[in-house]
Amino acid sequence: MKRCKWSVFLYWFLVHGPKLSEGYYSNVTIDRAPRQLREFKNEHPKPIGIITTEAGVPVDLRDSIILNKDIFNSEFFTDTLTHFVGEPIPERVVQGHGYGAFGYFEVTNDVSKFTSADVFNGIGKKTPLFVRFSTARQSINGNELVREHKAASIKFYTKEGNLDLLTINIPAYDYRDPLDFPNFIRAQKKHPKTKIRDLNMEWDFTTLRPSRFHAFMWRMSDYGLPLGFRKMDFFPLHAYEINNKHGERFIAKLNFRTELGLANLTTNQALAIASQEPNYFSRDLYNAITNKNYPSWRFEMDIMTLDDVKSLDYNPFDVTRLWKAGTFKTVTVGRLVLNEIPDSHFRSTEMSAFNPANLVPGIPGPADHVFKGRRLAYRDAHNHRLGRNHNKIDVNLPRGRVLTYTRDSDPPVRENMRDAPSFFPNSFNGPVPYIEPSRPSQKLVVYDNNIADFGPAWYFYNYILKNEGERQRLADNMAFTLLDVDEEVRERGLTMVSWIDLDLVKRIRERFAVLRKAADKANHVDVKTRFSPLASCIESFVEGQLTNHYY
After folding, report:
1. What does the DSSP 8-state code read for residue 260?
2. Which residues have CB under 8 Å from 320's CB, separation 6+?
3. Distance CA 370, CA 181 (A)
4. In whole angstroms, what separates CA 63 from the centre of its chain?
5. Which residue has the higher pLDDT, 444 or 87?
6. Tens of pLDDT along 477-507?
7. Higher pLDDT, 21 or 44
8. According to the UniProt entry, where is the signal peptide (predicted)?
9. Which domains does the chain show, CATH number per domain?
10. Residues of the binding site for heme
11. pTM
12. I need a surface site. Which of 92, 249, 416, 469 has the fewest CB within 10 A?
């Protein structure tokens, strides 16, 4: 029967499908990624030119093969080999695996009452931007379908300079002490001896920094695995100070809501997709934009006045919690649209550098200590990875004129300020500062406490999770992560979960008992036999996918 179906399909395709002689790629799917090379050839019927050495010297055909020749007399060979071994640049410590796209931001509502930032004022105004999507702890060639933070780093090329907003796909962060950042990341990386991820590390860190439980539960829930970058919301997390042209100040949380509809994956669904395409998120984004199904997000601001802040019974600057309903109002600002894939992934996505300290007039920025730590860490990371002139790389370069006294160092240096004075202050008409009249004269000071508050985690479990299915999947996912965790750490963690909600800890213990029994039994079976049922499921999945795809 299956052979018959394929015969019918083949006959239809040969008669009615596109012909290779017409210059089309023989692929009837909507997957555009495999067609890119054929499309390039269609655009360039002849070779685009003569290959050259890096110095621009044309390469003779006889020098394109080095066998039985003096390799030291071939500059083409020297260029090729020495450049190849030097191509990798230092990888990002976090968010190593990423994918980028260009687009624009369009203002749809008047928010001049709250901020004087030019990028967010003037209905109909469009500002070009670049977004780098990534997944938190994966290396540059990692699996996108792992349950961990997904990020979207946004660079707005505004008239007032670059504005960078660094976001993740859940609205609560994992720590509020900037000193915890390196250890939070290390706890999720591989063990230094085994080079295998050890969940003892993550659970031990979590139980010793229990304010992390709120974000941890978000990640272990359905919200922790979106159905691709296009169908996830993302949040800059901090409470931003903003001001209008009169110097009036407000506190704002910024939210990007997908206009395609929020959609998530269960663990089993993610495993099934990852078995076929671990780069599904990137492929999905590429295909959508290339097929002109441009993804978009609604940009909102949750707003508080300074007087509102004084009457709150919680700390609105705490990045590990959400703002309580009824204590703020939400205003829509505009739309973010992605409509262009970079021609070179390395040139744009990997060379991009985002710094949360890149702010513009009208947005003085967050006052919390986590943000202050990030101001230091991100700049230092970019200096290490890309050099002191990383802001002069094309994808990071502001669109307006840049006048600065920071010059020289590693390329690119561009015009390097030519013959302008190289010191400040000077009396020879070098660049001078200005005075922003609407800039607030007072500075916000935020004090944090170190007390573990399980209230946000309790609220998430009982009110944000919508049904029993979502609560059970959260418990199942948390139980699975405990399988190889040391008993002392496991019991400490479960005790803390009981402080969040007794129903949740009951579900986790019940599921853990089932998983533990199955794991103990499986440990006595060789790995090939143990995973044969999964292999059979994947085989059925692939066959079903192909059948449904063509019919």
Report:
1. T
2. 172, 173, 174, 175, 176, 211, 212, 214, 215, 456
3. 9
4. 43
5. 87
6. 999 999 999 999 999 999 999 999 999 999 9
7. 44
8. 1-23
9. 31-87 (4.10.91), 97-396 (2.40.180.10), 455-550 (1.20.1370)
10. 378
11. 0.87
12. 469
